[in-house]
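Predict the 3D structure for this chain.
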Amino acid sequence: MNRRRTLLQCSVTNETSMTAVGLRSERGPVLLAIMVSTGLVAIDATILATAVPSVVKDIGGFSAFPWLFSIYLLAQAVTVPIYSKLSDMIGRKPIIIIGIALFLLGSVLSGFAWSMPALIAFRAVQGLGAGAVQPMSITIIGDIYSVAERARVQGYVAGVWAVSSVVGPTLGGVFSQFITWRWIFYVNVPICILAVVLLMRGFHEKVEKRPHRIDFAGASLLAVSTALIVLGVLEGGVAWAWDSPTSIAIFVVGAIALAGFILVERRAAEPVLPLWVFRRRLLLTTSLVGFGVGGALIGLSSFVPTYLEGSIAATPLIAGLALAALTLGWPVAATYAGRLYLRIGFRLTALIGTAFVVVGTIVLAAFGLAPSLIVVAVACFVIGFGFGWSAVPTLIAAQASVEWGERGVVTGANMFARSIGSAVGAAIFGAIANGVIAAHGGNENDPGTVALASTGVFIGIAITAALIVLAVLAMPKTPVAASASAPPATDASDAVIAG
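Done. Predicted structure below.
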């Protein structure tokens, strides 16, 4: 074999599939493509926030602007498990490229939007693309890196989120103030093209071709049920009252669609979200961890900046930097998590991580009525550090328990759980804050009221952290294979191409 050739070989074989990527030394371009793709999704999650006033001034639609965020999250959450299943059938590469292409299309259309309804629709297209990019990035990491390496590599990807949390709002403000808000979307064009070029040139996989029976009925029912339930949770108490006919109808129809989905999946030849995912203890508990992580993260990202701005009059930039400490702690811990779980196992590593999360959230709650920028930043760093040792190892444990043909579904299920957790967390923590504000005169501009409402949310996040601990405790004590640093063919990145 000519090792100078640009081949990154990775054979991952089971009864139905085979993938191949090039030599260990050539994984760099693939990782760069993954980080660029992740950066697209990460930046767009925050870049629009600071530009909303400029957008509304230009095209109107102030009352509808929250949908710019809701529709993006909704489209992303609905499609994650569908893309993940398809990747197990036809490969990761076509799915992530389709996702980037959709994201590119949605970005261009958003830049040309002439009204708020049009912009909302085009943001949905972006969300459809993001639903493929994020899970495929994590799944490809699971394909081409060994168990020992994955935590470190996921630390790099988490670092992209850390940088994006600062760069996104800053870019949004710069574009809307000095150029035009439309460049918020146009800037994605060269990044999308770069990501596709890197993937096309550096990522090579070979998937065994065989007939598949696509689960159209299951995919449709899953999309409908998820869309309605997430929509009901996100907009309940905001766009309509929880006990309104609209809210009740949405949840009832969503529940019926969910019941229909379960019935279909029990009989489907190749179910889009196999029910065995929820019957395996390791996969169920790690998905519950993902659900809790999603809820805690949305609570922190939504209320920490509001808390600092409303209680001590911190500027949006300073408040954002305090929150960014969370996304800085995450990659720092994830970088070293691999060494830890190779020695003591996934479960104990995750327990140590959740202990950090609990301590950090308790500190936030305890000092909620005595606002301090330093305390918040340190607490956020500790929480992020804890997530690096809990969220990352539990996801890797789930991936390591299956072979290539199931890794997409397992990764997608975990990220799907995190998306649902974010929606539920947004609803619960929003209700807590609104309830506290209403009970204290409804003055949301009073620093004391803001601090009190935020403290209520922080207590809720601390309770969520405790529930994550319970989910980790329920994980089976699965040891890490001794060969994790030099994995067998089902996980290898240096194995010869099979067949």
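The longest strand covers residues 12-13.
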